[in-house]
Write a structure and sequence with these properties.
Blueprint (H helix, E strand, L loop, with lengths): L1 H13 L40 H13 L1 H22 L4 E15 L2 E18 L4 H67 L5 H35 L29 H4 L1 H22 L4 E15 L2 E15 L7 H67 L5 H36 L19
Antiparallel strand pairs: 1-2, 2-3, 3-4
Helix pairs in contact: 2-4, 3-4, 4-5, 4-7, 4-9, 7-8, 8-9
Length: 466
């Protein structure tokens, strides 16, 4: 008993100066963005697509969570991390094992044959005293990686949700462009008819007629392009929803108008809102715990073991029964291992420092994505204003030519060309508005958040039947 007490006291004194990992470099984040931002813009709401009042998009987003195959795989990876976390946590508790056995044998001696029956039942317990928090560090690392897995699921959900919304509005634009193209074709066909009549009357040159026919043919050639893009978009959406091609049809034919300005806050808010940034910070913390555990592997280990049991031996001369027990304290200190443990700790140190750089890169990437998306959105807003001015001028010209046509001061050719110019600008507006919506989606995705978190299954039932 004195030896046990002395050993424990010695180990406790050693615990006062264990190997400590060098601190990781601190992650830095700029205080402000490098571009001016709106100070009083609207806050980003989680279910941002509800602003466009589109019931089909809302249903598609919910279906995405239920049926996307990438997301379901991510849930299963999360289950694996949870199992690893439970495995690591089990090391903190004692193990208890029940062993039993029996034996019957016959031997031959001077007195003839002897039969012996032996039975033994043992209860064995083992426990490692976690002096240097080696087991606790590894358990903490496993718990942190489980949290990393949850943030990675959220990151994937953000990307998939944004991709689905982008595809949806691309499809809406293609349908709107097709409808507008039919109007433009009607006007071009009428233009060709008028120029042909003027050509036959000797009032127009052949080159003018050929040019009009060429423009008509070029416009008709755009129809398959819009249809191909619409079909490809629908098929890509079906894939996101875990369905074969041809199962998605976009109903909407008009693009929503965006007029609000998003308050992007400060770069520090990305640490709270972006799950990939949270995952990088958690991964760094987990690597730091693994490094501490690797350093603790180089320190002594103290193990307790205990056994208690009962044995029964049946002999020719009578039974021998009794209870037995044992209590042992084991001390293990690595002395020579060829540098294996030192190499293992150096490996974890390099991994920890790599995670630190990865975290810094993730933060800078997040800031770059916000600024790039904001600049793109601002550019689309400016272009939309210019196109609106151009449309207003076209409307004025069309109004004047319509009045002159009614008064007989101009012919239908000039009036038709003004109408076509108006439709051309409208086509540019559709394209720009869809790009603006795409930039807004990119901005909201870059700002992060917890979209559709309420739709996610609980961690104990990740999309699998139990």
């Amino acid at each position: 008993m004195r030896l046990v007490i002395v050993t424990l006291v010695g180990l406790m004194l050693m615990a006062c100066s264990p190997l400590t990992p060098p601190p990781a470099a601190e992650l830095t984040i700029p205080a402000t963005y490098s571009i001016p931002v709106a100070a009083h813009g609207e806050r980003v709401i989680e279910d941002w697509w509800l602003d466009v009042a589109d019931p089909q998009l809302k249903e598609l987003q919910a279906q995405l969570v239920r049926d996307n195959l990438n997301l379901r795989q991510a849930f299963l990876r999360l289950d694996q991390l949870e199992a690893r976390q439970r495995t690591a946590q089990a090391g903190l508790f004692p193990t208890l094992t029940l062993n039993g056995g029996g034996r019957r044998e016959q031997t031959v001696g001077q007195n003839g044959e002897n039969q012996t029956s032996t039975g033994r039942l043992t209860l064995a317990a083992a426990y490692e005293i976690d002096l240097w928090q080696r087991l606790r560090h590894r358990t903490d690392a496993a718990e942190l990686r489980l949290l990393v897995g949850e943030e990675e699921v959220r990151t994937l959900l953000l990307s998939l949700s944004a991709r689905l919304a982008e595809l949806y509005f691309i499809g809406v634009e293609q349908r709107a462009q097709l409808d507008l193209l039919k109007q433009r074709l009607d006007h071009n066909q009428e233009l060709v008819r008028i120029i042909a009549e003027r050509y036959q009357a000797g009032l127009a040159a052949a080159a003018e007629l050929y040019q009009a026919q060429q423009n008509l043919a070029q416009m008709e050639a755009q129809i398959p392009l819009f249809e191909i893009t619409l079909n490809q978009t629908s098929n890509a959406m079906a894939l996101l929803l875990g369905q074969p091609p041809g199962h998605i049809r976009i109903e909407r034919t008009d693009l929503p108008t965006l007029s609000n300005i998003i308050d992007i806050g400060l770069p520090a808010s990305l640490l709270r809102r972006r799950p990939d940034v949270s995952a990088a910070l958690l991964e760094l913390d987990a690597a730091d715990r693994e490094l501490a555990a690797a350093l603790a592997d180089r320190l002594p280990r103290l193990d307790l073991s205990a056994n208690i049991g009962r044995s029964v031996t049946r002999l020719s001369g009578g039974d021998v029964t009794g209870t037995f027990w044992s209590l042992a304290l084991g001390l293990t200190q690595p002395l020579l291992d060829g540098g294996r443990l030192k190499a293992a700790s150096d490996l974890q140190l390099a991994i920890r420092d790599e995670k630190q750089l990865a975290g810094q890169l993730t933060i800078l990437t997040a800031i770059e994505e916000v600024e790039s998306a904001l600049l793109a959105e601002q550019g689309s807003f400016r272009r939309e204003q210019l196109l609106e001015q151009q449309q207003e001028m076209n409307n004025q010209v069309l109004k004047i030519r319509t009045e002159n046509y009614l008064l007989g001061l101009t012919d239908s050719l000039e009036l038709l060309r003004s109408e076509m110019a108006q439709l051309d600008v409208r086509s540019q507006q559709l394209s720009n508005r869809r790009q603006l919506i795409g930039h807004r989606i990119s901005l909201i995705r870059a700002l992060g958040g917890h979209w559709l978190d309420d739709e996610l299954p609980p961690r104990t039932a990740h999309h699998k039947t139990r």
